[in-house]
UniProtKB/TrEMBL annotation:
<dbReference type="InterPro" id="IPR005337">
    <property type="entry name" value="RapZ-like"/>
</dbReference>
<dbReference type="InterPro" id="IPR027417">
    <property type="entry name" value="P-loop_NTPase"/>
</dbReference>
<dbReference type="InterPro" id="IPR053930">
    <property type="entry name" value="RapZ-like_N"/>
</dbReference>
<feature type="domain" description="RapZ C-terminal">
    <location>
        <begin position="169"/>
        <end position="287"/>
    </location>
</feature>
<dbReference type="Pfam" id="PF03668">
    <property type="entry name" value="RapZ-like_N"/>
</dbReference>
<dbReference type="Pfam" id="PF22740">
    <property type="entry name" value="PapZ_C"/>
</dbReference>
<keyword id="KW-0418">Kinase</keyword>
<feature type="binding site">
    <location>
        <begin position="64"/>
        <end position="67"/>
    </location>
    <ligand>
        <name>GTP</name>
    </ligand>
</feature>
<keyword id="KW-0547">Nucleotide-binding</keyword>
<keyword id="KW-0342">GTP-binding</keyword>
<protein>
    <submittedName>
        <fullName>Putative P-loop-containing kinase</fullName>
    </submittedName>
</protein>
<keyword id="KW-0808">Transferase</keyword>
<keyword id="KW-0067">ATP-binding</keyword>
<dbReference type="GO" id="GO:0016301">
    <property type="term" value="F:kinase activity"/>
</dbReference>
<feature type="binding site">
    <location>
        <begin position="13"/>
        <end position="20"/>
    </location>
    <ligand>
        <name>ATP</name>
    </ligand>
</feature>
<dbReference type="GO" id="GO:0005524">
    <property type="term" value="F:ATP binding"/>
</dbReference>
<feature type="domain" description="RapZ-like N-terminal">
    <location>
        <begin position="7"/>
        <end position="161"/>
    </location>
</feature>
Length: 297
């Protein structure tokens, strides 16, 4: 087995952001996982994977601040890995300060950079120390609004499709701009220029998954022309992503609240992807949030 046949994933990020759950998800997908490996041993570990003669073809390594002084050499270790002919992917996990503080208080754990207390100060110091690594990460997942199960599913979707029916997995995510843009989006569509069903009283409590809402949106000639042109664009560019070796693509579709227009457009894109035999999923991040009583659009 050559070095190119070993799929190596490095997981890092903020303490409390979900690295353990991510590793467990990868183990379920058949990855050989090592937690808290010193960066100086990464190259040796990759060489051992090659020497396993195919027994270890996918491996994941968790490296974080628990490694103390060893951790500071991670970027250098990854450069050595590439110089030796190994390719790797890096997954960076993060969450908001507020969420991380809450998780630490709930678990009653101490932050590794604040052993005597001061959780927030420790989180902010860690965020600063990890700036360089975040910048070279291939994928960033913000776990602030994800349950453990949702995180495990997302990691499996990103990295566990080794035997998927196609070479490219496409995730379509609808969202509301007022809740923020998803961090891992590759292609971003802003559909706030389309007529808003929120202002139609009988459509307001529904989502873009309902036929009534979809009929309202796509009866408009602007929406018809837009979706036709955008699907033509996808038909053109997706094969080129495959040629470049991209394994996973995230398409973000945003409107103001993430309940009507973005949902309907995302659903239509999902139908297109399915018809073209791409491995795909459609997720409506904020649709349920709006139906629970947030009336501002």
């Amino acid at each position: 087995m050559s070095s190119k046949q070993v799929r190596l994933l490095v997981i890092t990020g903020l303490s409390g952001a979900g690295k353990t759950q991510a590793m467990q998800s990868l183990e379920d997908q058949g990855f050989f996982c090592v937690d808290n490996l010193p960066p100086s041993l990464i190259l040796k570990f990759a060489e051992l994977c090659v020497q396993s003669q195919g027994k270890v073809s996918r491996a994941a390594i968790v490296c974080d601040l628990r490694g103390g002084e060893f951790f500071t050499s991670l970027a250098e270790a990854l450069e050595d890995l590439q110089r030796s002919g190994f390719q790797y992917e890096m997954l960076f996990l993060e969450a908001s300060d507020e969420i991380l503080v809450g998780r630490y208080k709930e678990s009653r754990r101490r932050h590794p950079l604040s052993p005597s207390g001061g959780i927030l100060e420790g989180i902010q110091m860690e965020r600063q120390k990890l700036t360089e690594l975040r910048g070279i990460a291939h994928k960033i997942i913000d776990t602030s609004n994800l349950s453990s199960q949702q995180l495990r599913h997302q990691v499996a979707e990103l990295f566990g499709n080794e035997h998927a029916s196609g070479p490219l997995t496409v995730s379509v995510v609808s969202f509301g701009y007022k809740y923020g843009i998803p961090l891992d989006v590759d292609l971003l569509i802003d559909v706030r220029f389309l007529p808003n069903p929120f202002y139609i009283s009988e459509l307001r409590p529904l989502t873009g998954e309902h036929p009534q809402v979809q009929n309202y949106i796509f009866s408009n000639s602007l929406a018809q022309e837009f979706i036709e042109k955008y699907l033509d664009l996808l038909e053109y560019i997706l094969p080129h992503y495959v040629e470049e070796g991209k394994r996973h693509l995230v398409i973000g579709v945003g409107c103001t609240g993430g309940q009507h227009r973005s949902v309907a457009i995302a659903e239509r894109i999902g139908i297109f992807l399915k018809e073209h035999h791409y491995t795909m999923s459609v997720n409506h991040r904020d649709a349920a949030r709006n139906r629970k009583g947030d009336r501002t659009k």
